Amino acid sequence: MAVELKIKWDGTAPGLAENRLSLGAFGDSLTLLLNSLRRIATNLVGQAVDERHARAGRFANAARQLDIEITELVKGSAGFDSVITFATPVGSTLPLLDLAQTAGTELLEALQAEGQGVARNGSVRKYLQSLPKGVTQQTYSLHSNGAALKEISFGQAVLPELPKETPCLVQFSGSVIGVGFAPGKSEVRLKTDTSTVILSATPGQVDAALRLRESDVVALGVFHDDAYRLLMLRDANAEPKSHSRETALYERWEGVLKRLAQ
């Protein structure tokens, strides 16, 4: 069953006035749109089968078989007609789930919500953010065998404003596996039981990490804006004195802790 996706953009973005589709202006956006469709399909597969099985075996790559194939540029318009295809690998079977239609419908629902400022899907939000400046109207419609399934239309997207991430304290136990220092980034790299963590650090903290490279360590840091900042590093077998702990946390990092408490 063919599932058709039609997209139309209007405005002053490159190529729109001439009814042309500019790859330079829209190429990255189209890639993000396809990524959004596949991410939605991945979630659908996970809901349809046991999550443990959805992450492995033949179900893991099911969503990657979805594609958006452009069939025709719409004459007299800046947009295109396309088909959402799903290629089942040879010898594979999947649950009775129409991924193309179901994922396509959910994609349009997420586009409509995000375009109106309602947080629904982060991948779709990235697509809308990537559209070139000058897109003043956008229309998306989904059809199956000529029958309309869903159509949405909105102007310039009013994307949701998400609350800013607040800093938080983190603690890691592990070992020092590397450091960085001037003229590069000043940082300490730790190996924990589950991952490798990179924390920005002062030159003094880097020196301390080098002295502790043969020991198990405990690191206290701050996580903010997808990055870690080292506050304190100590030998895991050497319990710090109360005074030294208070000095490190409350005197040296008083400003940070006050901001965390707000």
How are the strands ordered across the major sheet?
2-3-1-4-5
Q: What is the distance, rounded to the nearest whole angstrom, between the alpha carbons of the first and last residues?
A: 55 Å
The number of helical elements comes to 7
Helix fraction, binned, reads 25-40%
- Characterize the biggest β-sheet: 5 strands, antiparallel
> How many DSSP E strands?
10
Our Rg estimate from Cα atoms comes to 25 Å
Low-confidence runs of at least 5 consecutive residues = 52-59
In terms of DSSP E residues, the strand content is 25-35%
Mean of residue pLDDT values: 84
User: What is the H-and-E element order?
Assistant: EHHEEHHEEEEEHEEHH
- Structural class, by secondary structure, is alpha+beta
Give the topology, please.
Layout: E1 3-11, H1 23-48, H2 51-54, E2 66-73, E3 78-86, H3 99-115, H4 122-130, E4 135-144, E5 147-155, E6 168-180, E7 187-191, E8 196-200, H5 203-211, E9 216-224, E10 227-235, H6 242-251, H7 254-261
Parallel strand pairs: 8-10
Antiparallel strand pairs: 1-3, 1-4, 2-3, 4-5, 6-7, 6-9, 7-8, 9-10
How would you portray this structure in words?
This protein has 262 residues and is an alpha+beta fold. It is built from 7 helices and 10 strands. Strand 4 and strand 5 form a beta hairpin. About 3% of the residues have low confidence.
